[in-house]
Structure to design on (310 residues):
DNA sequence: AAGACGAAAGTGGTTGA
DNA sequence: TCAACAACTTTCGTCTT
């Protein structure tokens, strides 16, 4: 299965076309520096995808909260009320009161006062929000939550930020699911440093002994084409070219995203749907220079005369 | 004016002694 | 542990469309 995204990463102002955009971290907005237009607000709606209005909607309602790995205690917990009242509102005797006091204390020790649990609580919340921002399916988010728990057990969080590790777990989860995302894309959407994120990902994988198959350019072609608004015809021809390249071993040692970008550049041009190097660079997270180097290489290896399509 | 080009210097990770 | 190395980035002046 191929996870597609309709949303193109915004790189240009829709109003004035300027590329001079600024990200406001505190407000979660992307603003155009030339005309001031707010291009993206991070409104994260984590509400239910449906509402229950009346009897006709009854089938949609579920009873009770679903258990969810993204909740620190999987959503299964009952709190001891803090008020020293019984169910009818009457004050309790001092003996019962002190017993309750002990119970509360015990409960909070067992659950949240433990710093590990507090960390998890925090992280699960954070990860749910991040997952939404990355538009990841629930299955990948749950897997990421599991990885985070393991990271916590292994004491990997020490010295690193919770959001940093959480983001790394989401990234790794994508890799494991066979739908890798470019680090640049993840770091952009989560507003985190690319280097820092990359480093954390590597360390988490190392310490947890998580090994992932090397990424292939073909895994990125679909994502990039859809962000560029290119049809499946272009996508297929890019994948086809990739297969040719693979047997010639021209892909070894090359970054898969750069390769995918170059293949798309070539096939879009061949198919008469030319995209600029700039636009492809923006969605693929590599620079124009890399696209140039790569596509020159590939064109000569595949004996494609680009002049014809200019 | 936008897009493409390519040289040159810099960065961070990998590898092998 | 350190230096050499390959891939990639950044920056920038120049050429092409």
């Amino acid at each position: 299965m191929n996870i597609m995204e309709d949303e193109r990463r915004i790189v240009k102002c829709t109003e004035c076309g300027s590329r001079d955009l600024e990200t406001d971290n505190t407000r979660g907005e992307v603003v155009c520096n030339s005309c001031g237009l707010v291009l993206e607000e991070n409104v994260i709606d984590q509400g239910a995808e449906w509402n229950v209005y009346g009897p006709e909607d009854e089938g949609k309602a579920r009873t009770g909260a679903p258990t969810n790995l993204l909740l620190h205690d999987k959503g299964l917990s009952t709190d001891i009320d803090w008020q020293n009242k019984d169910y009818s509102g009457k004050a309790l005797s001092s003996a019962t009161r002190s017993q309750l006091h002990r119970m509360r204390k015990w409960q909070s020790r067992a659950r949240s006062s433990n710093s590990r649990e507090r960390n998890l609580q925090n992280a699960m919340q954070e990860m749910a929000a991040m997952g939404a921002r990355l538009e990841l399916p629930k299955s990948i988010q749950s897997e990421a939550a599991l990885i985070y728990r393991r990271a916590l057990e292994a004491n990997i969080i020490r010295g690193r930020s919770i959001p940093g590790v959480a983001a790394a777990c989401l990234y790794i989860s994508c890799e494991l699911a066979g739908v890798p995302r470019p680090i640049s894309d993840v770091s952009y959407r989560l507003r985190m440093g690319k280097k820092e994120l990359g480093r954390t990902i590597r360390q988490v994988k190392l310490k947890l002994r998580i090994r992932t198959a090397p990424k292939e350019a073909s895994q990125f072609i679909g994502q990039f084409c859809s962000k560029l608004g290119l049809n499946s015809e272009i996508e297929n021809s890019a994948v086809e070219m990739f297969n040719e390249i693979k047997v010639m071993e021209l892909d070894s040692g090359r970054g898969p995203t750069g390769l995918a970008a170059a293949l798309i550049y070539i096939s879009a041009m061949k198919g008469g749907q030319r995209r600029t190097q700039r636009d492809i660079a923006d969605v693929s997270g590599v620079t124009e220079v890399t696209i140039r180097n790569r596509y020159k290489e590939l064109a000569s290896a595949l004996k494609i005369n680009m002049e014809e399509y200019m």
Q: What stands out?
A: The first strand of chain A starts at residue 21 and ends at 24. Residues 115-133 of chain A form the longest helix (19 residues). Residues 1-8, 41-65 of chain A have pLDDT under 50 and may be disordered.
